[in-house]
């Protein structure tokens, strides 16, 4: 006689007449079979294929593209670097060669930059706190601005021209320091 589970010969669960009314017979899982691994897995689905996409062999830097640093970026680095020197203050903005504000040392120095290839020429306008030595202060600013611009932009600074807008009375507060 045949049962809902198949032939009587390959029954693997309780007989249908042994199950209470309204319940479905439970069929135990088939025994697990062991398949020995004979080869080693060396890649996964997420491993990139060598030589494709962003994992391709790197080309020399000159062949990957170019980098251009705008004048305004160099100007901002120069302004920040000049402001790191003690006794240096800001200069008033100029409109048509005339100061538009006060040269009281508050604020930040001004700078303009001209970048050509891998070289930069800078012009910095600032105030110096009296009685500091103008020569010593400008030499310190020139060296520090050159070092910071070259370190941060990898440009060669060929010249740093400094204009002293005014000597200010008292000590000028030190500006922000870039670490």
Automatic annotation (TrEMBL):
> Compositionally biased, Polar residues: which spans?
40-50
Q: Which residue intervals make up region (Disordered)?
A: 1-64
Task: Enumerate the InterPro entries for this protein.
Answer: Asp23
Give one Pfam family, short name only: Asp23
Could you say which protein family the record assigns here?
Answer: Belongs to the asp23 family.
Q: What is this protein called?
A: Asp23/Gls24 family envelope stress response protein
Give the species. Answer: Actinomycetospora atypica
